[in-house]
């Protein structure tokens, strides 16, 4: 009886450690296309009749048949037979291309890599968990091959397939295992891809203190703020760690509270942490496809705005919005008015810029939302803005290093007629390090009953005793 290679054994855990060396990637691309065509024909229109495990077993059989046929063709043409090790690596690569991420799979599986940045098939940068950014190997033999694989990847998703074509030149996709892929092509000189892999999922504020992201006293303040049901916006540049901090804040939510999460692609994954968060309703936005209807919407479109309005019938204790980018801020504000303790994120350079951006987002809902109304709504319903800092420095070895820390915490209150709100630096910026204690508004002294280390705060702020 012929022994199956490791990747072809049913339910096998496929080894990705062999790396890209020794694989004919042009052959992989050809075999993947052939295997995909045969698999689609075998499954027919009803792809759901076989679960993922059964589809993979069928795929393994198809790949074995293709490899055996190719090996026979090589012998008939007088070419040397493949060594078993080469055939095994080739089959593994085709399997990954068909069911995984192809040449990207070893990078996504590498626990040392946090983000993968691609600006062309042969221009690859890897952001590592230690903060360094280093060059990587090519992920395709050409830009056309990379785009072809992205199109295949987008259409393959059983849960949330997405279009990617010259007519729809952008792609945002949730990958197996929790990574998020963003890609553009046809409107960029070369295909651009970023894969974000959140390595810190089950994270706490104590973990972030240990990593130097914030001080212990700032962590005690934020933990108390969550328990006291203050509404918090986490702001910062892309890649600053906003999602990680939101996960850590959510770890302070009592387990009996029902949580709703609202994201364009699942990143928080609170619904997968049933030991910490037993009751989570997780919504994911869905882009439409095809022509727009009379209402200007594409068929099948489902927005965060709609998800937030739908959530009002789910008896939620908290609404967590992965990122506020537009008119969904109005639904978020309604959620804050209905029940305090919401958490959301947005991109901004500093804390006050985050408030201005949220006002602008609210005004995108239409002319009926005036600047005064938007400002008042933001000021009355957001209690804290937590700003994160991201800096990038060359390492001297051709790479870069990224450092992240909590830069400031602003308390927000209505006031100051010109701006419509007033801010206080509870934790103020400090050069080259996490924020330090600043000025504590009187109403925040009550957070001591939720665990805020008030004596240490005043000592750090230079305020002496209580």
TrEMBL record:
Coiled-coil regions, chain positions: none
Domain named Bacterial type II secretion system protein E: residues: 190-386
InterPro entries per the UniProt record, alphabetical: P-loop_NTPase (IPR027417), T2SS/T4SS_dom (IPR001482), T4SS_GSP_E_ATPase (IPR050921)
GO molecular function list: ATP hydrolysis activity
UniProt-listed Pfam families: T2SSE
Domain of life: Bacteria
PANTHER family attached to this UniProt entry: TWITCHING MOTILITY PROTEIN PILT, TYPE IV PILUS RETRACTATION ATPASE PILT
Family assignment from sequence similarity: Belongs to the GSP E family.
Protein name: Pilus assembly protein, ATPase of CpaF family
Lineage summary: Bacteria, Bacillati, Actinomycetota, Actinomycetes, Propionibacteriales
